[in-house]
Amino acid sequence: MKKTIAITSLLFLMLSFMGWSQETIPLYKGIIPGSKTDDQYVEKQHIGDDGKRYISFVSKPSLTVFAAKKGTENGAAVIILPGGGYQVLAVEHEGEDLAKRFNEFGVTAFVVKYRLPNDAIMTDKSMAPLQDAQQAMILVREQAAKWHLDKNKIGVLGASAGGHLAATLGTHFDQSYVPNPSKINLRPDFMVLLYPRISFELGVESSSAKNLVGPEFKAEKMAFFSVDKQITAHTPKTFLLHATDDPVVKVEHSILFYQALINNKIPAEMHIYQAGGHGFGLNNKTNNDDWFLRLISWMNSNQIITKKK
User: Are 262 and 276 in contact (CB under 8 A)?
Assistant: First the structure.
């Protein structure tokens, strides 16, 4: 027992030394909006065929804080929404690994463990992920001072289905789907979308569309969640990344979103790799390019990250 405690303490000290101090907090203090109780619905973790860690059956959403190392923080923050087709959460390579990389550049990151659509525990499964994303934005902005953040430099990153959720947050911020008595601004200041599903009308056979709104595919829901159609002049500036040979989410999704952004005069940058497939996270093994440095350059150019005087 003592040995286990010693190892745990050593790990915590190592993470703190590297700037990866972590704190996990519930998204909601009280009743979770739109929730139902099902005692058989138990959260599970497993290791996928890719050797990465995944979480499923999420009913109690939370936020894990990866605070930038003291002295390096620049006030910028990003809320990270892992992918997984609205069926699982790729919390490791599309969550924690990205958060740690942001910390290297003084950006505080928040990995959201959001609810996955399921009629057993939700009155409207299609809205639960968006509710959790909005609640994450409320919580981060409300407590910005605690983490030394600039309230005007809080963005969102999502990969795959998480990219769809991030884009949904960035296009449906005018209405709050969770209690927001203080009227906290729900609009992200910037978006980072990694191989995102954008349209639910392009490739309706996708598992993410079925998991979120199917199998009926009602027209009003399909339009609501086809986020390329929801872009306005107030949509946040956006960085997009995709691979041409992505077999899961076709590159056309990012192209659709990029074109809609340009049509609305929204600052946008898009990088499309010749190869890389889907779900590559930080490491596109088909080339030696470090796309994350391109993202940091974009954040600098848009004054999201500024050097301390």
Answer: no
Q: What is the DSSP string of 170-233?
A: TTS-SS-SS--TT------SEEEEES----SSSSTT-HHHHHHTTTT--HHHHHHT-GGGG--T
Higher pLDDT, 22 or 289: 289
Residue 2 has pLDDT above 50, yes or no: no
pLDDT tens per residue across span 200-225? 888 655 688 889 987 778 889 999 99
Residue 205, exposed/middle/buried by CB under 10 A (0-12, 13-18, 19+)?
exposed
Q: Is 216 exposed, middle or buried (0-12, 13-18, 19+ CB in 10 A)?
A: exposed
* Structure tokens belonging to residue 258: 């990029």
The verdict on pTM exceeding 0.85 is yes
Give me the residues paired with residue 80 across strands: 111, 157
Give the Cα separation of 230 and 237 in Å (integer). 14
DSSP 27: S
Question: Which structure tokens are listed for 253?
Answer: 């999704």
Closest-CA residue to 57 (of 129, 120, 128, 116) = 116
